[in-house]
Amino acid sequence: MPQLIATAQKETGHYYLPTGEPCHGDLRQAKKQKAYPSPTTILGAVLARPGLDNWKQEQAILQSLTLPKLDGELDPDFARRVVAASKGELQAAADRGTYVHELAEAAVGGREPAELRAGFEPHWESLKYWSKFCYKVHKCEEVVVNHEEGYAGRVDLICEWGDKHEQTTEVVDFKTRKFKKVGRLIPDMPGHATHDEPHKVDSYDTDIIQLAAYAYAVFDEPVAARSVYIDPATGALENKLWTPEEVEEAFEIFKNVLAIWRWMKNYDPREVRV
After folding, report:
1. E strands, 47-150, in order
2. Cα–Cα distance for residue pair 262/42, rounded to 1 Å
3. Exposure of 65 by Cβ count < 10 A (0-12 exposed, 13-18 middle, 19+ buried)?
4. What is the tally of structural domains in the chain?
5. Element housing 232 (H / E)
6. pLDDT at 272
C-alpha cells in the first residue's frame, strides 16, 4: 500500500502543454500556461518514497563521516557543507540514471551509443541482451498525454516484447536501482541478466502506479507493464512484470493520488481549459 504523504520539498516538477511540448518552469509557470503535471511530479508530491528518502539520508550520513571538519569550523557551517556534498552525490546519481536511459534508448533502437563511458560496459551488454526481446517499438522516449485526467509524461518505451513465437504489448520503464547482492554477469533467460550469486532489487508501489499512468495515456484497455531495473554499480539487470489486472488496479490508485494533488495545489488543468 502506498504511503501518504511525501515530505515537504521545494516546488519543482515536470509539466507539459496539452500538445505534449514541455513547459519550462515551476507550478506557477504551469498554471499560467495551463500545463499538465507529469506522473512523477504527481506521485512525488503526494506519496512517500521510502527508498529514495532512505538513500538521501544515507548519503548525508556518509558525507558527515568522511568529510573532514575544518579547523575552527562551526557545526552549522559543517552541516551546510555536508548537505552540499550529499546533494552533489544525488546529482551524480541522477546523471548516471540519465546516461543509462540513453544506453537503453540506443539498445532498443539497434544502434551503438554515441559515447560508451568507461565503467558502463556491463550496463551496455545487459541492455543489448535485453533489447533482443523487444520485437517492435511503438514509442520510445515520447511524451504521452491523457486529456481526460489532465496529465502528461515521457514514457521510456512501449513495445511488443517476447520471442519469435509470441509477443505481448508492454509499457516499459527503466530504472537504476541498487541491487542488494550481485555476482558475475551471466545472460540466462529472456530479458534477464542473472548472476552466479543470488541478488535482489526492491520494487515499489510507485513503480507500477507510474507505469499505469503512462499506459492509460495511450491505451483505453489495460496492458502489461514491465519495470527494468539496472544496478548503477555493476550493470546487472532484472525485470518485474506487471499484469494487465495489476496495471488496471494501479491506475485507479493513480487517479485518487491525482485528485489529492489537484486539491493540494489548488489546480486542475482540465478546468482552466474549459
Report:
1. 134-146
2. 9
3. exposed
4. 1
5. none
6. 65
Asked if 183 and 161 count as a contact pair (C-beta separation under 8 A), the reply is: no
Domain holding 169, by residue range, is 17-45+120-272
Residue 84 in domain: no
Which residues, at least 6 apart from 155, have a Cβ–Cβ distance to it below 8 Å?
139, 141, 142, 143, 144, 171, 173, 214, 217, 218
- pLDDT for 59-112, tens place per residue? 666 666 677 777 887 777 677 776 776 666 667 777 888 999 999 999 999 999
- Considering the domain boundaries, does residue 250 fall inside one? yes
Cis peptide bond prior to 230, omega within 30° of 0: no
User: pLDDT under 70 in the chain at which residues?
Assistant: 1-12, 48-65, 77, 82, 85-90, 181-199, 272-274
> For residues 185 and 239, is the Cβ–Cβ distance under 8 A?
no
